[in-house]
Design goal:
With 98 residues, the chain is of the alpha/beta class. Helix content is 24%, strand content 22%.
Length: 98
């Protein structure tokens, strides 16, 4: 299994926002992480979706998907600065294309 030096390849997914709002959140994520040593390994996925509760209220959220839970708390604390709900998912394996 491929892993970079710090044993995480964070994928931050944005759910439940329109393109304009998702792009704004992407910009915030970029600012929050741009000076971190692992910044070049972060990927952001914008998922074209609607997320609503049973009262039809929009409930957008971020999902932090990482392949190793070690030290994920630091990344989570940085994501909290965005001000959205966050879901943390452990990825069991990442298989690169080459």
């Amino acid at each position: 299994m491929w892993k970079y030096k710090n044993k995480t390849m964070p994928n931050i997914k944005i759910y439940g926002l329109n393109k304009l709002s998702a792009d704004l959140v992407y910009s915030k994520i970029k600012r929050v992480f741009e000076n971190e040593s692992y910044a070049q390994h972060i990927v952001v996925t914008i998922v074209d979706s609607k997320v609503k509760d049973l009262k039809e209220i929009s409930q957008p959220y971020l999902q932090l998907e990482i392949d190793c839970m070690k030290n994920y708390e630091q990344k989570l604390e940085k994501l909290k600065q965005i001000g959205m709900d966050i879901q943390v998912v452990e990825l069991h394996e990442f298989i690169p294309k080459n």
